[in-house]
Amino acid sequence: MTVLPYEDALATFDPVLGLEVHVELNTASKMFCGCSTEFGAPPNTQTCPTCLGLPGSLPVVNARAVESAIRIGLALNCSIASWCRFARKNYFYPDMPKNYQISQYDEPIAFNGWTEVEVDGETYRIDIERAHMEEDTGKSLHVGGATGRIHGAEYSLLDYNRCGVPLIEIVTKPIEGAGEKAPEVARAYVTMLRDLLRALDVSDVRMEQGSLRCDANVSLMPKQATEFGTRTETKNVNSLRSVERSIRYEITRQAAVLTEGGTITLETRHWHEDTGVTTPGRSKESAEDYRYFPEPDLVPVAPDEAWVEELRATLPEPPAARLKRVSAEWGFTELELRDVVAAGAVDLIDRTVAAGSSAQAARKWWLSEVARRANETGVDLADAGITPEQVAEIQALVDDKTINDKLARQVFDGVFAGEGTPAEVVTARGLAVVSDDGALGAAVDAAINANPDVADKIKSGKVQAAGALIGAVMKEMRGQADAGRVRELILEKLS
Ligand code: ADP
Ligand code: MG
Ligand code: ZN
């Protein structure tokens, strides 16, 4: 597939983006029935007549899901509908047994909001078109093909556990004016949403488990043009990094098509993490194709104003305000703060600090040990396999001198490898620093005996030569000696 170099594409075209983010709510039960929403249960063990769409079953709205929808809407500065209905979106797919999805169409619970993100010190405003409630579909597992997609598969398995899990779809208005920064603005927006949703405690927002999913619409318009170009919609981009990469790729692909005189097809596309390209999916159906109509089995949702105001009072600190606060509190340099924002680590560091770590230590661990692990495994920092509380626990072990920085790296490895909590890893791997004079004394004596020339230098007053002996003791004790105490012992013995 031909692509135009990114700089060339941006010299000719302005990208326009539209982001549709689906978030699975963390309610205990489903949107319209009492089935559990627990992730990872054996297939088809969390179903009932309602979420399987059996004849005669009737949906009932989950009040907690409505509450979460309103809180999300408020956090995104949306207006909240005083009266709205669900709608049936009609289409066939095997993972959707009712043959329609209960969604919201022209009466979303939340609409006309806005939010802000920061990229490289610049603020970008993102307008929110709507946030509406709907239900998730089941999951198809296509078996036998090379790609896991339906094409080439021998057969498909269906798991209806996810059917009816509450979803909120958050849709932006077209995002213009980000220019070459468009892919980064998109990533910053999804990062901000993830942090916000986590702070609202409405979802566990795990992109790799699909509880936060992003569809990225991209179009290009020639500079100076006044009308938007035709968009493509890249579906289910499932990491923050992929949001940025897939949009960047799609800009270069569309630019090549357009400069060669071709046209963009309104279609969905698939993102391929391994090859870094998008390929065509299906051509987009229009709203009429779905034959939306108001859901006759459900009463309208009419949240009264007092309740909405009650919910407004439960909102967490907005991400932009938090960024202002932490940049004052943490005392990072501008460059450090920018790296932290670019890495999507503000929330993680904030929580690590809340768990007792210093800000500098939290920054160091998230941007070194955890970032390395996340890069190796191709996941986001938050999904690298360690929690902010555990990072704070490791730093506490460093602070109380149970371990040193070097040993701490091994504790990170142990936690990543699933060996337990930091304290458990220290015990199981025997990582604690030895400061006991008995054990240290023996190792110091051995080092002195093995290096008589160095010992003589120290005796004659060249105290800085002690470094060589400390190194020998450290090596002997696999890095676990208390370096300060070793130095003292050497000087005592040789004075
Ligand atoms: P669909 O149901 O087809 O997914 P939506 O309205 O739910 O449509 O979402 C389309 C998304 O794309 C919205 O975020 C919208 O702002 C955005 N969008 C609309 N037109 C364009 C365009 N020409 N280029 C880029 N994004 C667009
Ligand atoms: Mg849509
Ligand atoms: Zn059910």
Looking at this protein, list some descriptive labels:
495 residues; alpha+beta; 3 domains; nine-stranded mixed β-sheet; three-stranded antiparallel β-sheet; 16 helices; 14 strands; 19% strand; elongated; binds adenosine-5'-diphosphate; binds magnesium ion; binds zinc ion
Number of strands: 14
Sheet/helix structural class: alpha+beta
> What's the shape?
elongated
Percent in strands: 15-25%
Low-confidence stretches: none
* Structural Rg: 28 Å
Our count of helices gives: 16
What order do the SSEs take from the amino end to the carboxyl end, as H and E? HEHEEEEEEEEHEEHEEEHHHHHHHHHHHH
Please report the distance between the alpha carbons of the first and last residues: 74 Å
The strands making up the biggest β-sheet line up spatially as 2-5-6-9-1-10-11-12-13
Question: Residue-averaged pLDDT, rounded?
Answer: 93
Molecules bound to protein: adenosine-5'-diphosphate, magnesium ion, zinc ion
Descriptive notes:
By secondary structure, the protein is of the alpha+beta class. The chain folds into 3 domains: 6-311, no CATH class; 317-429, no CATH class; 437-494, Orthogonal Bundle (Arc Repressor Mutant, subunit A), CATH 1.10.10. 39% of the residues lie in helices and 19% in strands. The strands form 3 sheets. It has a 9-stranded mixed beta sheet with strand order 2-5-6-9-1-10-11-12-13. It has a 3-stranded antiparallel beta sheet with strand order 4-3-14, with no helix packed on it. Strands 7-8 form a two-stranded antiparallel sheet. Helix 8 crosses helix 9. 39% of the residues are buried. The structure holds adenosine-5'-diphosphate, magnesium ion and zinc ion. Zinc ion binds next to loops.
